[in-house]
Amino acid sequence: MNKWSHALITGVLVLLTPLTQAAPKALDRVIAVVNDGVVLKSDMTAMRRTVTLNAANSDRELPPQEVLEEQMRERLIIEELQLQEAKRLGIQIDDSQLQQAIENIAKEQSVSVQALREKMAEQGVAWAQYREQVRRELTISEARNAQVRRRISILPQEVETLASQLNEQKMQKVKYKLSHIQLKLDDDASKAERESVKQQAHRLVDTLRHDGNVAELAMEYSKGPKALDGGDWGWLRREEMPTIFADQITNQGKGAIIGPFRSGVGFHILKIDDVQGLETVAVTEVKARHILIKPSIVLSDKGAEKELNQLTNQIRRGEQSFADLAKQYSDDPGSAVNGGDLGWSTTDAYVPAFKAKVDALPEGQVSEPFKTVHGWHIVEVTDRREVDKTDAAVKNRAYRMLFNRKFNEEAQAWLQELRAGAYVEVLTDDS
């Protein structure tokens, strides 16, 4: 960096006064140049206050002054680089997103937003300063997520392997009360005999699924070792079961009918009469459809809202179907071709504003226009259902564990690359 650019940067924040008054007074000072940005002494002062306060609240000792200064300066340099990356990507946090984040922070601390504000005041932090710090952290987080996520690759085999390990750990404490029906099939049975026994097995399963009595059916049809006991195997952990039973049981709950499945001695049917120690996950899925209008240079927010109001009125008057209008007007190409249909999903998959609207909306009712980060929407919930997602929950947990591991690794690598590729000049008092 030449002398002129150096003087320009360090002199940006100097207050010039008339020559007849006192000499110029520096309001702030640049302590590091980071590409085309700077880190200011006031940034260090603010960070020192935060670090000191956190250490006091956690009863931790701070490192020596020189070490602390270096750590804080390096952290501010890394934050500045991430903010520059966010600017390059066009990432901005608007006031509604900021307010939602602050409300979440207050909720996590079990206080109101007003109480959080008072707490900041007690610690000598101006509310406007706190809001901008939260906005800064959100911006950095968005930039980091955008750049790091694309570096992460998780193979389906990795998820399956970890999910199996998690299942094995969970299943060690689970006990099942099982009933069993075995239809015998000799090794030398003809093709017709095998097909006949197979069809009989399917008929027994249909009977059981329509409230058939498993004990009566076992005593009448089963050739298994517990036939005279109504097929009752009692309470068993998976490691105590015959292997052919254990191989069929994953996360099924009470009342599940398993089979028919084949072994060397014939066809088998299992019924889980009861379970102890199994954690099952049931979720509500919704089937929804929407129409999205995105504001643009030629279409304002009010214009998008007005257009959706007109479409809503047409639907409610029966002049046009929701599906036809979605195909014609929706700016969401993925769902528009399907009449706006978003398919079956839990509402957690949606952005917060869309999730809140769908959760509160009765089935068959078209919402009023509302805005999310994607634009303006109207939405209709066409159906809801309860779904056993135990297997999916285990796989989701496995995926999250793998993602978090890889995210932390890749985030560190990305930051190192960002720092290594940057122009950074640390300025001393006599620079």
From TrEMBL:
Keyword Phosphoprotein applies: no
Q: What GO molecular-function term can you cite, just one?
A: isomerase activity
Cell location = Periplasm
Provide the E.C. number(s) assigned to this enzyme. 5.2.1.8
- Specify the domain of life of the species encoding this protein: Bacteria
Membrane-crossing segments per the record = none
Query: Ranges for the PpiC domain?
Result: 173-274, 283-383
Functionally, this protein is described as follows: Chaperone involved in the correct folding and assembly of outer membrane proteins. Recognizes specific patterns of aromatic residues and the orientation of their side chains, which are found more frequently in integral outer membrane proteins. May act in both early periplasmic and late outer membrane-associated steps of protein maturation.
Q: What is known of its domains?
A: The PPIase activity resides only in the second parvulin domain. The N-terminal region and the C-terminal tail are necessary and sufficient for the chaperone activity of SurA. The PPIase activity is dispensable for SurA to function as a chaperone. The N-terminal region and the C-terminal tail are also required for porin recognition.
**What is this protein called in UniProt?**
Chaperone SurA
Q: Give the organism the record lists.
A: Salinivibrio siamensis
Gene name of the record: surA
